[in-house]
Amino acid sequence: MILTAYQIYFDGHSKKNLLPGFTPYDNSGKLTEFFENEPISVIADRRHDSDYLGVFSHDINVGFPFYEEIYGERLKFGFEGLEKAIAFHYHHENPDVFGFCKRRSNPNIVRQAENYHPGIYSMIEKIVQDTGFCDKIPDTVPPILFNYWIAKTAIYSEYVTQLLRPAMAIMKDMAVLWQDSRYQSISKRHNKPEDRRKFSDAWGTPWIPYHPFVCERLPSIFFAVKRYKIKHIF
């Protein structure tokens, strides 16, 4: 089993978060309202001879102080632990997709997003309808988030081609997405004066708009509609 996993960084500070074994992707000076999704679109077009492909944020390790236990061995999150865990499940269950949300229990992660970003459900449903991918958001949507998953390489490319790129093209003309997503006030992240200046320089508002949070839920919809086999680890 061969795994290729990227980590995206945006500047010298975020580069310091990179972990050994991951393939670094330099997105310095290219931050947009879509965050990691534009690099994801580029990476998906590269030739990969690996069985699985994943693209992660530079700060992926911050969110995963967890372990995966296999045959009594506690694997810490990192490229080596990730590779071992995926190889084990690949040979035993052959999942199409690996997620990292086994501690989440909400049956519809898109509807759950309404708790944090009011109005986002209807925005997402309009977008997936306009792409022609599906007529409605499924009632059950597994918790897969946009930069926290790994898929068989062909499936990753399929997601980008069939849903992510068409959705991003539609989103560029949706003025409603530019309102404040409330992320900074809820999470208290990316709300320092230097963050707000950086965002103003990148796309014209000091707040994070809805674009990345719409994209965050698109993989869940894609895998629900396609009925791909998902395995959550860590």
What's the SSE blueprint?
Elements: E1 3-9, H1 12-15, E2 23-26, H2 37-44, E3 52-57, E4 67-70, E5 73-76, H3 79-92, E6 97-99, H4 109-112, H5 120-131, E7 149-152, H6 153-171, H7 183-187, H8 193-203, H9 211-226, E8 230-232
Helix pairs in contact: 2-6, 5-6, 5-9, 6-9
Record keyword descriptors for this entry.
single chain, six-stranded mixed β-sheet, 15% strand, 234 residues, globular, two-stranded antiparallel ribbon, alpha/beta
Q: Could you list the spans in which at least 5 consecutive residues all have pLDDT below 50?
A: none
State the total count of DSSP E strands.
Answer: 8
State the end-to-end distance.
Answer: 19 Å
Helix and strand run: EHEHEEEHEHHEHHHHE
Q: Largest sheet at a glance?
A: 6 strands, mixed
Question: What is the arithmetic mean of pLDDT?
Answer: 93
| Main sheet strand line-up | 2-1-3-7-6-8
Tell me the number of structural domains: 1
Percent in strands: 5-15%
What coarse outline follows from CA principal-axis ratios?
A: globular
Give the helix proportion (percent range).
25-40%
Number of helical segments?
9
Structure overview:
The protein has 234 residues and is an alpha/beta fold. The chain has one domain (3-232). It is 40% helix and 15% strand. The protein is built from 9 helices and 8 strands. It has helices at residues 12-15, 37-44, 79-92, 109-112, 120-131, 153-171, 183-187, 193-203, 211-226; strands spanning 3-9, 23-26, 52-57, 67-70, 73-76, 97-99, 149-152, 230-232. The strands form 2 sheets. Strands 2-1-3-7-6-8 form a 6-stranded mixed sheet, sandwiched between helices. Strands 4-5 form a two-stranded antiparallel ribbon. Helix 6 crosses helix 9. The longest helix has 19 residues, at 153-171. It starts with a strand and ends with a strand. The model has no long low-confidence stretch (mean pLDDT 93).
